[in-house]
Write a structure and sequence with these properties.
Radius of gyration: 18 Å
Low-confidence stretches: none
CATH architecture: 3-Layer(aba) Sandwich
Strand order of the largest sheet: 6-7-8-3-9-10
CATH topology: Rossmann fold
CATH class: Alpha Beta
Helix content: 25-40%
CATH superfamily: P-loop containing nucleotide triphosphate hydrolases
Structural class: alpha/beta
Shape: globular
Length: 219
């Protein structure tokens, strides 16, 4: 599904470059559950952003589902992101001006799903995450844990091929966090590829393997 060769991400500095990622060589097969770990500043979130097509300022080769991403323009990369990828952010990134139900509808609107089918999918997802009673509320009216649940629901509603999760349980109570990880495990068993960034050894144990980053290098 994912193949990276000699991928670098750096920022220009006076008299040189500051490397966030250095010579990343990585292969992730479809159906894997992979954990990326490492100390703060190791480049974990940057790597996740590149895989998710949110960061285009890198050099090297990157193939996603046989698409040569390094040869694609930003418009095409955004299309791939919307079609295949669901993203769970630590800071939720819900749209404040939309209700919970409307936030869940957004990923479906990108994928040409019929209106009646979208309504059914939103209703099913609200039920699955036990947030039916919150559907008409705005993000500012929810607790942090509730916002994170909505963020996870939004990521999975369109059944993406790949879920990218950046500290997905960082703002949740332990019982809620376990619920989310069990959901990821179930989705993975059904064929969804999952890549998570976490500091939690407990969360890492749900995955098949761990990729460790340090100072921008895979170690």
């Amino acid at each position: 599904m994912i193949k990276m060769q000699n991928l670098d991400r750096y920022y220009p500095l006076a008299g040189g470059r500051y490397y966030v990622l250095r010579r990343i060589n990585l292969e992730i097969k479809e159906g894997e559950f992979v954990t990326i770990m490492g100390p703060s500043g190791a480049g974990k979130s940057t790597l996740l952003s590149i895989i998710g097509m949110l960061d285009g300022g890198w050099e090297g080769e990157f193939y996603f589902l046989d698409h040569p991403v390094h040869k694609l323009n930003s418009k095409k990369r955004i299309e791939i992101n919307k079609r295949y990828i669901g993203f769970v952010f630590q800071q939720y990134h819900l749209l404040d001006s939309l209700t919970v139900a409307e936030n869940l509808d957004i990923p479906l609107s990108y994928r040409d799903v019929k209106s009646s089918e979208r309504q059914a999918l939103v209703a099913d997802t609200l039920d699955r995450f036990h947030i039916v009673g919150k559907k008409d509320l705005f993000p500012s009216q929810l607790s942090g844990g509730q916002q994170q649940l909505v963020g996870v629901a939004r990521a999975v509603i369109a059944k993406p091929k790949l879920i990218l999760a950046d500290e997905p349980t960082g703002n949740l109570h332990s019982s809620q966090g376990q619920e989310i990880m069990e959901l990821f495990k179930k989705l993975n068993s059904e064929g969804t590829t999952i890549i998570q960034v976490t500091h939690s050894e407990t969360n890492a144990a749900y995955g098949h393997r761990i990729i460790k980053l340090q100072d921008g290098w895979i170690v």
